[in-house]
Fold this sequence. Notes:
Blueprint lengths: L1 E4 L2 E6 L3 E4 L4 E4 L6 H7 L7 H17 L3 E4 L10 H10 L6 E5 L8 H7 L1 E4 L1 E4 L2 E4 L9 E4 L4 E6 L5 E9 L3 E3 L10 E2 L7 E6 L2 E4 L2
Amino acid sequence: MELLLNEEVLKLSPDKYLIWGRESMLVMSDLHLGKVSHFRKHGIAAPHALIQEELNRIQSILDREAPKKWMIVGDLFHSSHNHEWELFAGLLQHYPRLETILVRGNHDIIPGFMTKEAGLKTSSTYFLQPFLFSHHPHEHAAHYLISGHMHPGIHIKSKARQSLRLPCFYFADKYAILPAFGRFTGLDLVDKTKNNRIFAIANHEIIEMK
């Protein structure tokens, strides 16, 4: 689905990312890589195969979209260094011409020298006219903000007393919140109002809530 925002065309994907066409930029948030190994280290059962599945998801998107820039709006890596970081750094080596930018989130505690060695540019915020990228959502006086952090979701009820909780893209007047790309995250429920636009993700489709 395409969305016109601040005179820029954004393509929303049911795979939980957006494409900014003019900049050939892929934008994701909250990948939370390293979480499976973190759980396993602390005795929580999590299949080891899930690690490679997440990396395969990322590689498939990079191959399909072929962006020039990859913007990660925080929480790329869930924990301190573990072997999943080496796997991710190895994946990046397949894309030497890809400019990869990490706006650090609250979980991004990997040391700077390691992100630099992997080829990532890092900052607390990143501005590219007309958008400001930040991990935490908030209203900005001068620029439209694109963020993550909250893992937004929408609660949908049917007449048959059935209900669903779906991840979503959330667009307010002055900021947007992307869905968490990582599959091992919860949802922070948001409400539809006359002042926002919400795009739910269901059955590999984008559905605007009215």
